[in-house]
User: What shape does this take?
Amino acid sequence: MVFIFAFSKALKTRQSLTDTHSLSRTKLLKFCYFLGFLILLGCQGESASAKAKTQETPAEENEAQEAQEITTKTILFFGDSITAGYGLDDTQDSYPEVIQEKIDSLGWDYEVINSGVSGETTAGGLGRINWILNQDIDVFVLELGGNDGLRGVPLTETKANLQAIINAVAEKDGDIEIILAGMELPPNMGKAYTDEFRELFSELAQENDLTFIPFILKDVGGIPTLNQPDGIHPTVEGHEIVAETVWDYLKPLLQDNATRRL
Assistant: This one.
């Protein structure tokens, strides 16, 4: 009888332990499921966050790029060998590049493009103007005509070509500021021709309401020490003076634009 009682008690104890173990295992499983759910939820949150960041980054980059494109403006110098810096050891010494240095020193967001071609005539410039206008331009400096004069091209043809270039720029964008640079010829071309040549530039400027530089080689043309041996193309020092002449007309225009943008 004692044995049966002891056996029954042992059986109950074992059953109790088994139940306790089963209960603990159930709680453990529930805890594991809960923990797994939290981990899964956290991973989904991180994934969504990472996805959002991935989606935002290209947009931010595009906005930055668009802002750069909007703020940086272009000044294009369209001319002949004077603009191209013919004969200089380093074309970085040409007057357009000197002007870029002036702009950079002021922290203004303008980029200078030198589109000067040595030997270029007004006819040659007219032939390539449409290609040049494939880019965005804010200020267009027109320096052509000198080679026409030295070759004795009829003045009516020179004026017509310059007018056609001006028209092409205006048709591209009426907001482009055009600066016309005048040129003069040596006296050996004859007084009548040289006088009419000089006047055609001022006439074009008045007829088109353009900013006008009467003589781009002011204080340089005809001065041996400021010109190369050919007597036509400026030296490095000559280009610095040309840059100052152009800057006198360009700087107020850029300042006005900068003020309006503020």
Remarks:
- Residues 1-29, 31-41, 46-54 have pLDDT under 50 and may be disordered.
